[in-house]
UniProtKB/TrEMBL annotation:
GO terms for molecular function: DNA binding; DNA-binding transcription factor activity. Keywords: DNA-binding, Transcription, Transcription regulation. It comes from the Bacteria. PANTHER family: AGA OPERON TRANSCRIPTIONAL REPRESSOR-RELATED (PTHR30363:SF44), HTH-TYPE TRANSCRIPTIONAL REGULATOR SRLR-RELATED (PTHR30363). This is DeoR/GlpR transcriptional regulator. The lineage of its organism: Bacteria, Pseudomonadati, Pseudomonadota, Gammaproteobacteria, Enterobacterales. Gene3D superfamilies: Winged helix-like DNA-binding domain superfamily/Winged helix DNA-binding domain.
Length: 265
């Protein structure tokens, strides 16, 4: 469970019961008592509760509950409102280098899936005109590859988002289920400290999970700003991918022996 969510649930419990002991909270959330003490210290510092011997009690503040709810949403989740155009203008150098590092994984006669991410769009722009099948839910990638004579493009249908230039929903998911591909290239909105790869759109997450299911090799393209970022829905765990390509890991804790990690910087 994310720390922010646990803080919210702890505060709700204390609000409903006026107080709580460290041991009962530890048992309730299946974490150590030391973790609960740290949680209570953070809540007390933000003046939502007061510490008491062996636990905590509610601080008399009519606005406290609303403030904690708003903090959980506004500070701990990645902004999901960015349009595709805005994303293509952010961290362009890093995304270009990551895309270039992904090119050697693409071989002639491959059948691959590329998601709707801006990093995959940067990859599409660098693809050579070779015999290749590309399946995507991104209209932007379709348009980018349309001039390649040798590349076969399969566009996933479904509900169209003009803001993000992609297709999603049950029709797209059903279409993806019918394929079996060699590689899946994708990105995300955040990689949480718990090593969860996350996204802010439930529809995007469901589609990406189907894409993962039909792919032999999963290749995550994520620039350094994605790390230590929360977003609402979990796509998969970092150990669920085969290759991680980034410009730079923020720390060695994200390096896993089971994953081939490539840093471009």
């Amino acid at each position: 469970m994310l720390q922010a969510k646990r803080h919210l649930l702890i505060f709700r419990y204390i609000k409903e019961n006026d107080c709580a002991r460290v041991k009962e909270l530890s048992d309730m959330f299946s974490v150590s008592q030391e973790t609960i003490r740290r949680d209570l210290a953070i809540l007390a510092k933000s003046k939502k509760i007061v510490r008491s011997f062996g636990g905590a009690a509610l601080l008399e503040n009519n606005n406290a509950y609303l403030e904690v709810e708003q903090k959980a949403v506004s500070e701990n989740f990645v902004d999901t409102a960015e349009s595709f155009i805005k994303r293509t203008r952010e961290r362009t150098d890093a995304k270009t280098r990551i895309a270039k590092a992904a090119l050697p994984f693409i071989k002639e006669h491959d059948c691959i899936i590329m998601d709707n991410s801006s990093t995959c769009w940067f990859l599409a722009r660098q693809l050579p005109d070779i015999n290749l099948t590309v399946i995507t839910n991104s209209l932007n990638i379709v348009q980018t590859l349309a001039c390649r004579k040798k590349i076969r493009i399969i566009s996933v249908g479904g509900e169209y988002s003009e803001r993000h230039g992609d297709f999603h929903g049950p029709v797209a998911e059903l279409t993806i289920k019918s394929f079996k591909v060699s590689k899946f290239f994708f990105s995300c909105q955040g990689i949480a400290p718990e090593y969860d790869i996350r996204d802010g759109s439930e529809l995007n997450v469901r589609l990406k999970q189907e894409m993962l299911n039909v792919s032999d090799k999963k290749i995550l393209l994520a620039d350094s700003m994605k790390f230590d970022q929360y977003s609402l829905y979990k796509i998969c765990n970092l150990e669920g991918v085969d290759v991680l390509i980034t410009n730079k890991l923020p720390c060695e804790e994200y390096r896993c022996s089971k994953i081939q990690t490539i840093e471009t910087d």
